Amino acid sequence: MIVLSADHGGPEAPGYLQSLGIPAGYVSPDEWDKDPVIARIKSKFGIGGQLVQGYDHPYLYLTNDITRNPRIDLAALETMIAKELVAFPGVSYAIPTGSHPEAFGSDAYANGQYLPPSVTPYSFEERTGFERERLYMLGELHKANVSNLLVAATDVHYASQMRHERDFDGDGDTLNPVVLYAEGNIFNFAYMETKPVDGEMGFITDVRDETGKVRPGSVLEIPPR
User: Fold this and answer.
1) C-beta atoms surrounding 76 within 10 Å
2) DSSP three-state, residue 176
3) Which of 46, 91, 138, 217 is the most exposed place for a label (fewest CB within 10 A)?
């Protein structure tokens, strides 16, 4: 089974969601009164210069002077910013990703890791359900004896290949993701091909740059199982 996916989708129009009883609406960050919040944060951490480098939906970027300053507790700063953001109308969640890759990074989605309440007031894994949803989906495919499951996700802004555990028996184990290849800052395409291997159908994939050259370390051949 080969699944094609992407890193995001498009939601229904807020009016339609509201007609179904689902809370929805438009968010207008340009209309927020941000100055008092920024002043409060800068005062708390003794920041005299610029705080925010830019905003590229849905990501908020701090300046390099802030992130590289050893005197600033970056985890505490991001946690405070997240708390302030959810107070604005239309913001349901704000996740401090930069200072906690072990909890909020891509591997953590499958490992089920999250910060305890003593560090942050909510559990990222409990609110998003990435671990539970993925285990449920793969568990159902496992019950149906589906094997050779390949998921190709596009538009994820960097090239990577990951492998997860195959046994989903509900014994509490995580998916134990392993990064096989990862590379950023390149314009890339994924190449995928099914081909016979010893009389059965196998699969090969690699990552290529804008000139069509295969990126070193990206060739992955998957034999039938």
Assistant:
1) 14
2) coil
3) 46
